[in-house]
Structure formats: structure tokens, C-alpha cells
């Protein structure tokens, strides 16, 4: 074993350091505990009261709100005679609370400003809310916490749909027939898969790996101990980024320096907001331990901070002199090779963890045992598709762990406008 490989093994940075079956058992245990109780698991396992079997009616229109990341989008979605979605009157503005803290009244005023033009076009409103929220039986959503630097503390703990309708009513609109269905973006991603691939799938998974990460799957109501429903099925928002999984010493050091160091451990191992900064932490440790030269370390410091995109660039083309990390290694072949191995190991480990996470969701769904009736995984997120080797390793380990080890079959798809389409379908469910 060479110096770089010893470094990776010592700090549990390689894919080989992930015990797939032990990790899978841990995730499944956390999922089961999260379904049974409101607290006691690192996974929220949020019931959505949304069935994957919602019917799409030709000619129906839904007002769609999409609050995700730093943008707030609104549009009208109409399903044509073939049940295909037609998106119209699309607008995008900044998400309230990004630039400065907003009060609850300011938050809902901005939302109402952007849907008033649509308010008479449908009585159904599908609200894709890309932050953790408890979903109520009447399909409203109560925010638990805002991530992605949104500053709107007064909105936490209060129903989104009810307050939005109250603001519209205050403005003189008749909201007596209006209904709001709040869904997480991952749940919407699952619903989009159901709409696009209705005929041959045994079940569906919604998966997002972008700035953050999350997973949704279909569960039997009888298995959800913390609600009283005993029949039927519904979609569960896992909030998988919160999984309390811990690996090596460098992971612990890195997490301790992040916002909310006791939360989002899984997300901080695989998502776009953290892969680059974590790789920076690893590279600095490699310089200290002599795996990379001090000369490289000095040049590397001039190109900080490292993000996931620039990390990916080096793996995509490690000979391109326009890339910062290529400049940092200079003409030192040993540094260039060691750096490549380190970065690729971080990505491969993330891919294996992603595959184990998806395997857990498929196994929990109970579906996928017939190869002609696979579980359709709708994967969304720039990080997943744009980061070098990440999709490749995820598929590689899904084949190894999910199909060969556990005998479950999957098909991974990519559906444009998934959050918008899924929110529209959720709007039809009420």
C-alpha cells in the first residue's frame, strides 16, 4: 500500500471504509424508530398524507408555488387531454429572508404578491416547500427549521397554507374554496416519477443531491406508528440529510467547524455544499502528514476556499492548466497523482453512501423484487449529475449492494421540472 492509500485508510476516507451492510442496518433501524415515534431517531421520517396513487385529471389546473434554495417560483400547471403537464405564466423572484430577516407578515406578503395574478385560475394550490416541515392531515405544512440561510424565524411553527390564505383574504380575495397542499421538494420529485412512469414500476423513490440531500419513499400506513391511519399508503419524507452517521477523525474535525455541528451529518458527507470544503480539510491534513508536499500546500493556500465545482474540475481534466488545482500541483507528478487519488476517494465514498441510503429506501418500500417491475428512482440535483464520478459510483454500488446483494431492481430517471410537476400533482390530491 502506498503513502496515499495508507492516508486514506487511516482516516476512513476510502469507499472500503464504509461497511455497506452495517451502515444499511443502521439506516433501516433509524427509519423504523423514526416511523414509530416523533423523537428518538436522527431521521424525521415525516408522514406527508400524500398518496402516490393520486389521479391526474385532464383539463385540471393547479397554481404552483416552489420555495427552494434562494429562489421563489410561481406558475400555473395544466394537464392536457393526455395528462401531460403544461407550465405557463412562470415567474421567479428571490426567496424572502435571503438578504435580510423578514417578519411573518412580510414573508406571506411577498408570497401573496407573486400568486395574486394566478389566484382566479384554480382553487388548488400546490406548494413545494424545500425545507423541513411537519405535514398535517389537511395537507398544510408547519416549518420546523429553515436551512440555506433563510432568515424568517416568525414563520417557524405556524401553518404555511393557512397563513397564506389569510393574507390573500385580507387583500379581498375569496379563499373559501381554495385548498393548499404543502409538499417537500423530494416528495414532489417522487410524485413526478409516478406521473411520468405510471405503468411498469413497483414503487417510486424521490432523491435530491444538490446543495443538500434528501430522500422520499412510499410506506404502508400500518407501519407508521406515530399516526393513526391503518390502511393505504403514503409518501414519507425521510429528511435523510440528518442521519447521524459518523466515520473518521477528519470527518469529526470538519463537522465540528460547520454550522449546526450536531446536525446534518449525512448531508455533510455527500452534498454539494460540503464535498469541496471537506476535501479542502482533507488536503490540508495530507500536507501536514507529508502525503502532499509543503510546496504544494503553499500554492494550494492561494486558491482557497475550495468548492465542489473546482474539486470536480480537477477530476474531469487534471491536465487543464486553466484549473486552479492543476496550477497548485505544478509539475510535481507525485503531488498530482496523490491529489487525484484523494479527491476521487472522497467522491467514491460519497457515491457508496448514496447507494446505501437509496438501498435502505428501496428495502423499506418492500418493492423491486421483480426485474420487470423495478423501483423508479427520480434523482434530481446538480451535484449528483455534475460532480465527476458521483453518479457513476452511485450506480456502481447500487448494482453491487441493491441488486446483487439484496435482489432488488431499480431504474434511475431524470425528470425536468420535477418539483413543479410534483407540487401540481399534490395539489390535485386535496
Overview of this protein structure:
The chain is α/β, with parallel strands linked by helices and 430 residues long. Helix content is 41%, strand content 18%. It contains 15 helices and 13 strands. It has helices at 3-10, 20-36, 104-115, 160-170, 185-196, 249-256, 267-270, 272-288, 294-301, 308-316, 324-329, 333-365, 382-386, 390-405, 418-428; strands at 46-47, 61-68, 71-79, 85-94, 124-129, 133-135, 141-143, 179-183, 203-209, 213-220, 233-237, 375-380, 410-413. Strands 1-11-10-9-12-13 form a six-stranded mixed beta sheet, with helices on both faces. A hairpin with a 5-residue loop joins β6 (133-135) and β7. α8 crosses α10 (308-316). It is globular and about 70 Å long. The mean pLDDT is 94.
Short description:
The protein is an alpha/beta fold and 430 residues long. The protein has helices at 3-10, 20-36, 104-115, 160-170, 185-196, 249-256, 267-270, 272-288, 294-301, 308-316, 324-329, 333-365, 382-386, 390-405, 418-428; strands at 46-47, 61-68, 71-79, 85-94, 124-129, 133-135, 141-143, 179-183, 203-209, 213-220, 233-237, 375-380, 410-413. The chain has 15 helices and 13 strands.
Q: Can you tell me the residue ranges where pLDDT is under 50 for at least 5 consecutive residues?
A: none
Distance between the termini: 60 Å
Going by helix content, strand content and strand pairing, the class is: alpha/beta
Order of helices and strands: HHEEEEHEEEHEHEEEHHHHHHHEHHEH
Query: Biggest sheet: strands side by side, in what order?
Result: 1-11-10-9-12-13
Number of helices: 15
Q: Could you report the average pLDDT, rounded to the nearest whole number?
A: 94
In total, how many beta strands? 13
Using only CA atoms, what is the Rg?
23 Å
Strand portion? 15-25%
| Outline | globular
Largest sheet: 6 strands, mixed
User: Could you estimate the helical fraction of the residues in percent?
Assistant: 40-55%
Amino acid at each position: 500500500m502506498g503513502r496515499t492509500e495508507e492516508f486514506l485508510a487511516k482516516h476512513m476516507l476510502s469507499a472500503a471504509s464504509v461497511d455497506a451492510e452495517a451502515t444499511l442496518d443502521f439506516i433501516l433501524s433509524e427509519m423504523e424508530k423514526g416511523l414509530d415515534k416523533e423523537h428518538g431517531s436522527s431521521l424525521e421520517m415525516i408522514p406527508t398524507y400524500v398518496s402516490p396513487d393520486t389521479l391526474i385529471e385532464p383539463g385540471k389546473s393547479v397554481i404552483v408555488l416552489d420555495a427552494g434554495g434562494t429562489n421563489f417560483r410561481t406558475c400555473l400547471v395544466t394537464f392536457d387531454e393526455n395528462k401531460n403537464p403544461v407550465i405557463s405564466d412562470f415567474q421567479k423572484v428571490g426567496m424572502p429572508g435571503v438578504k435580510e430577516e423578514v417578519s411573518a407578515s412580510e414573508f406571506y406578503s411577498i408570497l401573496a404578491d407573486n400568486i395574486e395574478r394566478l389566484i382566479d385560475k384554480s382553487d388548488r394550490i400546490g406548494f413545494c416547500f424545500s425545507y423541513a416541515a411537519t405535514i398535517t392531515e389537511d395537507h398544510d405544512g408547519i416549518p420546523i427549521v429553515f436551512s440555506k440561510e433563510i432568515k424568517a424565524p416568525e414563520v417557524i411553527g405556524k401553518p404555511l397554507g393557512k397563513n397564506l390564505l389569510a393574507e390573500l383574504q385580507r387583500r379581498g380575495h375569496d379563499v373559501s374554496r381554495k385548498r393548499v397542499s404543502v409538499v417537500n421538494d423530494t416528495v414532489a420529485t417522487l410524485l413526478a416519477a409516478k406521473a411520468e412512469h405510471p405503468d411498469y414500476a413497483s414503487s417510486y423513490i424521490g432523491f435530491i443531491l444538490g446543495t443538500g440531500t434528501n430522500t422520499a419513499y412510499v410506506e404502508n400506513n400500518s407501519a407508521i406508528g406515530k399516526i393513526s391511519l391503518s390502511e393505504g399508503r403514503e409518501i414519507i419524507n425521510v429528511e435523510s440529510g440528518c442521519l447521524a452517521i459518523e466515520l473518521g477523525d477528519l470527518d469529526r474535525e470538519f463537522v465540528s467547524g460547520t454550522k449546526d455541528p450536531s446536525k446534518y451529518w449525512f448531508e455533510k458527507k455527500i452534498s454539494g455544499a460540503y464535498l469541496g470544503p471537506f476535501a479542502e480539510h482533507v488536503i490540508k491534513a495530507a500536507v501536514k502528514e507529508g502525503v502532499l508536499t509543503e510546496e504544494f500546500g503553499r500554492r494550494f493556500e492561494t486558491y482557497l476556499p475550495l468548492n465542489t465545482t473546482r474539486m470536480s474540475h480537477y477530476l474531469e481534466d487534471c491536465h487543464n492548466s486553466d484549473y486552479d488545482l492543476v496550477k497548485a500541483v505544478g509539475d510535481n507528478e507525485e503531488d498530482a497523482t496523490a491529489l487525484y487519488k484523494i479527491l476521487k476517494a472522497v467522491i467514491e465514498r460519497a457515491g457508496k453512501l448514496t447507494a446505501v441510503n437509496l438501498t435502505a429506501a428501496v428495502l423499506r418500500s418492500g418493492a423491486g423484487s421483480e426485474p420487470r417491475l423495478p423501483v423508479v428512482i427520480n434523482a434530481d440535483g446538480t451535484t449528483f449529475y455534475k460532480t465527476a464520478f458521483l453518479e457513476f459510483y452511485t450506480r456502481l454500488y447500487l448494482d453491487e449492494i441493491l441488486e446483487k446483494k439484496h435482489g432488488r431492481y431499480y431504474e434511475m430517471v431524470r425528470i425536468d421540472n420535477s418539483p413543479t410537476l410534483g407540487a401540481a400533482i399534490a395539489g390535485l390530491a386535496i
